[in-house]
Specification:
Radius of gyration: 19 Å
CATH topology of the largest domain: Rossmann fold
Distance between the termini: 33 Å
Number of strands: 6
Number of helices: 9
Helix content: 40-55%
Strand content: 5-15%
CATH architecture of the largest domain: 3-Layer(aba) Sandwich
Structural class: alpha/beta
Strand order of the largest sheet: 3-2-4-1-5-6
Length: 252
């Protein structure tokens, strides 16, 4: 049996030119997770707690790499731990998804500016309009009716995520019988986690979007890989943020 921890990246720099880098809040979220992980590893009562001897993977996006970096900074007496970069865990191309829905939406920032220009609403209302517009763009992509317009179709993205997870599981299961299987930690994005969870639970494609939209920055989803297959043990655990204060909880 292998435990697999899917860690969503910390808050990115929404509204800035470089969305991919972590915001100050995102950095702190990752540090909080590292500190919490360290504490759990010391808790001998919880036999399923992480042991800090896991095999670590991260997508190749900057926000994945930085989340891993600051996670390790949060560990006490942290030692350099090798992280395997695996681009299969990269997020969907949101720029392509947005632009194909509306050519003016070249980025989250451009989309937000366009909505604000035409709406003239309060900040709360603008956020709601943004979520609705982004959901519209995602549903168009997932529908499969416009596949020829996208660089990566929904089906291709979904298959990439599933294949990448199976790839890292297979790497563990190629160990000799006398070698102990390591748990796996993967720093990735909400879209990837949503797709994987939906596949395991046999949920419809559109529902995978709902799962992704509920995932908190730096939240942890735990899977268990057994001979019978994969199962979801825990979804979107962000207790490390709740312990620090609800102001640390974010979704973008």
């Amino acid at each position: 049996m292998t435990n697999i921890y899917l860690v969503r990246h910390g808050q990115a720099s929404f509204g800035e030119d470089d969305y991919d880098k972590l915001s100050e809040k995102g950095i702190q979220q990752a540090i909080f997770l590292g500190k919490h992980w360290q504490q759990l590893s010391k808790n001998k009562v919880k036999k399923n707690a992480p042991k800090l001897n896991e095999k670590f993977y991260a997508g190749s996006l900057l926000r994945h790499e930085q989340t891993a970096e600051y996670f390790f900074n949060g560990l006490e007496n942290n030692k350099p731990i090798s992280i395997t970069t695996h681009a299969g865990f990269n997020e969907l191309d949101h720029v392509d998804v947005l632009t194909q829905c509306n050519p003016q939406w070249r980025s989250f920032q451009a989309m937000s500016t366009d909505i604000e220009k035409h709406a003239g609403k309060s900040k709360k209302e603008l956020n709601q309009l943004f979520k609705q517009a982004f959901t519209q763009a995602m549903k168009r992509w997932v529908s499969g009716d416009f596949d020829s317009e996208y660089q990566e179709t929904w089906f291709e993205f979904k298959q990439r995520c599933i294949d990448s997870l199976q790839d890292v599981i297979n790497q563990q299961h190629t160990k000799n019988d006398n070698e102990k299987l390591q748990d796996i930690v993967i720093f990735t994005s909400g879209g990837v986690i949503g797709v994987i969870v939906a596949q395991i639970l046999n949920i419809e494609n559109q529902e995978a979007l709902t799962i992704s939209q509920q995932l908190v920055n730096s939240g942890v989803t735990k899977l268990v890989s057994t001979k019978q297959g994969l199962r979801v043990n825990c979804l979107n655990n962000y207790s490390h943020l709740e312990l620090e204060g609800y102001e640390w909880i974010s979704y973008f």
